[in-house]
Amino acid sequence: SKKVKSLPKDFLWGGATADFQYEGGFNEGGRGILSHDYETDGSQAHPRHHTMRLSDGQLINPKSSFILAEDIPDDAKPVFLDDQYYPSHQAVDFYHHYKEDIKLMAGMGFNVFRFSVCWSRIFPTGEETEPNMAGLKFYDDVINEMAKYNMEPLITICHDEMPMNLAIKYNGWTSRYVIDAYVKYAQTLFDYFGDRCRYWLTFNEINAVRGFGPTGVRQATGHDRYLAAHNMFVASAKAVSLGHKMIPESQFGAMYAMSELYPATCKPEDMFHHMQARRENWYFIDIMGRGYYPSYAEEIWQHHGFNKLEIAPEDLATLNAGQLDYIAFSYYRSNTTKDGDEWFNVGGSANPYLDETPWGWPVDPLGLRYCMNEIYDRIQKPIFIVENGMGAIDQADDQDYVEDDYRIDYLQQHLSAMADAINIDHVPCLGYTMWAPIDLVSLSTGEMKKRYGFVYVDMDDQGQGSLKRTPKKSYQWMKQVIATNGATL
Ligand code: BG6
C-alpha cells in the first residue's frame, strides 16, 4: 500500500542561507569586518585559506576554515590582498537582490525563510553601545518583503561568525566579554524584529565550535574548545530567557551538525567507540536541550586532555533556565566510525552500502529518519530540519536552465524519509528548510560550482557573472511538493 506522505497543516516549508555565503554588500550600510571576510576561495583539492601578515612583514596563508588554534602564530594579523578573491564580499548579492529572491521563494510556496543576520552589520566591531541603524533597516526591509507573501522568518542569530574585532581582541568565545556582546546583539534583534519573528536559532552548528583568534573562524582544541563551548551555552541560554520575556510567542532552538553516525561493524569495540564518538555531538544537544551537563561530560574532557572545566554555579542556573524549545539540525550525509578513529569526525570509515556525491558525501535518506527519531527519543522536544540538500555540478543551457533530476531524486528520497518519521514514527517536526534555495557560495570550499539551489545564479568560482537568477527543473518540482503539502512525494 502507498504510504501517506502528507504533512501536518501548519508544517513550515522553506529554505536556509547564511549571510557571508549569500548576502554580500560587504562594505555597504556600515557593515563591519566579519570573521569570514579574509577567507579566500578554494576547492576540494586546494583548501580555502586566510591571508595574514606576521609582525615581521611576512605573509602567511593558513589553510581552511577548520584551522586549529595552534596553526597560527599569535602575531598574525589579517590583511586583504589585491590578487585574491574573497567570496564573502559579494557572495551572490542578496543585499541587492532580496526582493527578487524572496519573490522566487514565495513562488515555490515557502512559508518560512531561514537566514542569518550578519553580526558585524548590526554591531560593526561588536563593542558599540548603539546598533548600526542601516544594518537593522536592511533586515527590516527583508522581513517586511517576506511578510507580503506570508513568509515568516527563522533567524539564525550567529552562523559560525563574529565581528573580526571580537575574534582578535578577545580571542573570541574563550572570553566572557563575548557573552555580553552576543546578548546585547540578540536583545537588539528581539527589540527590532520580535514583533514579526517567532522562530529563532541562537547558533548554527554549535557542535563545530568556531570563532577564535586572528582568523575568527579557527577551531580551538582541548580545554579552550570546551571553555568556548561553555561560554556559547551560557550566551545561548541568556538569549533564550531574554527572548522568552521579550517575545511571548517565541520558540528558540540552536542548530547542530547531526549528520548520522554509524558503527563501521557490530564488533563490540566498534559499537562502544561509536557510542563515545556520538556523545561528542550529544554533549551539545544534551546541555542546551535538557539544561544541565551530562554525566559523561568529564569523560569527554579527559579524552581531550583535561580534567575539569571551571563552571560558575550561576552558569548552571542560567543553563537550566534557558533550555531550548526545539532541536534544529543540519543533515547532509551519514558517517561511519570504528575503534581507533577520532571521536569527533565527519567522514571516518567508508560505508560500502552508500553512493556518494561528487564531493564524497555519502547519500543516506534513511539516515535522516534515523536521526530524527534518535534526537526526539532522547530530548523529547520538537525537532526542526533546518538544512538538508545536495551540492552538485549543474550544467546550465544557453538560457541558464538546469535539468537537475539528481537533486530532485535526492530531495524526494530525503523528504519521503522525513514524512515517514513524522507519519509512521510520530516524531513532531516543525518544518524543513532546504539548503540553499538560491545557489550560493560553499562554506567548505568557497566554490560556486558546488550548487544547492532550486534557482541557478549566473556566477562562477571567481565571482564573475551577471548574477541573473533562473529557476531550475527542481523549482517546479518543489512547488508541487509544497502545494500538496508532501502528498506528491
Ligand atoms: C553546513 C553549514 O555545515 O553545511 C552551511 O551550516 C554550509 O553554512 C552547508 O553551506 C553545506 O556545506 P558546503 O560546504 O557544501 O557549503
TrEMBL record:
Signal peptide: none annotated. Keywords: Glycosidase, Hydrolase. One of its GO terms (cellular component) is cytosol. It comes from the Bacteria. One of its GO terms (biological process) is carbohydrate catabolic process. This is Glycoside hydrolase family 1 protein. One of its GO terms (molecular function) is beta-glucosidase activity. The active site is at residue 387. Belongs to the glycosyl hydrolase 1 family. It holds the Pfam family Glyco_hydro_1.
